[in-house]
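Could someone model zinc ion with this protein?
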Amino acid sequence: MSAHRVPETERNPAVSTPPPRTPTLPFAAALDAATGSVSPAALLVERRVSDLAGLYADDAAWQAAVAAGDPLVYRVCIAPVPEVAGEVPFSITTIEAGAIGGECFMTKGHTHTAHEGEVYIGLAGRGLLLLFDGAQARQLELVPGVATYIPPGWAHRTANVGDDPFRFLSVYPGDAGHDYEWVLRHGMGARVYRDGSGQQVVSTIQS
Ligand code: M6P
Ligand code: ZN
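Reply:
Sure, complex below.
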């Protein structure tokens, strides 16, 4: 049986393909849980303490950390998948072990500009995934062997709660988008502090 082809004039423009670009071809990438590399990679994003202005509770400690060498907090190794609708980019994030004013090293955190979810899969070390929808906050352990689901509409941030680098794989819709302003303004509903060999989660939701 021959395939039925819809004539060009009868196609629904709402579901037509986006403007032409070079098609992405199938590929396999090596994920290194020991180094956090994705190979091949398109981009390596590095964020230092100075890139995290306004995010830690203790601003004086944040300024002191910037002055004391501005160490690397995390890096994201991103696979060569375009961030456009229909594609599914993925990356490995590595957060170093450390704290600022006792508050664990963490990502900036963001909401998606589109109503899209995301999956994080633990690869190495011990992390906590913080989620906040503006009213409710949740925290999920993210360790090797665990996949966590971030539903649409929930801001998300990860923190390293261990003594070694924490690594996770993220997989998200290409048109999800990153909104950092929302988290700067509303926070994550909780902060994570190092407490001896463990962690302490402090709610920041005002009742
Ligand atoms: C994960 C994904 C990325 C994100 C990265 C760092 O890998 O969610 O999209 O960029 O974490 O998080 P942030 O962008 O909040 O700094
Ligand atoms: Zn995201």
